[in-house]
Write a structure and sequence with these properties.
Layout: H1 3-14, H2 21-31, H3 46-56, H4 68-80
Length: about 100
């Protein structure tokens, strides 16, 4: 997938016009099937770096996040866009985490 093709899908799915150059470098690696560990500052746009590729692959994508409030916000936002997403955390009961 080219950047132009990806940005068309980005607009359709998330409503953003363009990726930041650094985001695209990360996303391009993931789309090629490469493994990635991304550690960046707040405001970098990390969430989009894993959310966008997850919409392009079949199957399940697992994301590990230490911030329960952020997980909740991101899952709610994805669900509002029609993207199926769930989270598991220690504040929920065993039944809620199933």
């Amino acid at each position: 997938m080219t950047r132009n093709e990806a940005e068309i899908k980005l607009k359709e799915i998330f409503g953003f016009d363009k990726f930041y150059d650094e985001q695209w470098e990360t996303i391009e690696m993931l789309l090629r099937g490469e493994r990635m560990l991304l550690i960046e500052k707040t405001g970098y746009g990390k969430s989009l770096c894993f959310q966008f590729p997850a919409t392009q692959f079949d199957g399940i994508t697992v994301i590990f996040s230490p911030l329960i409030a952020l997980m909740r916000d991101q899952v709610n936002s994805l669900n509002e866009k029609g993207i199926s997403a769930k989270y598991i955390n220690s504040e929920q009961s065993h039944e809620e985490n199933l």
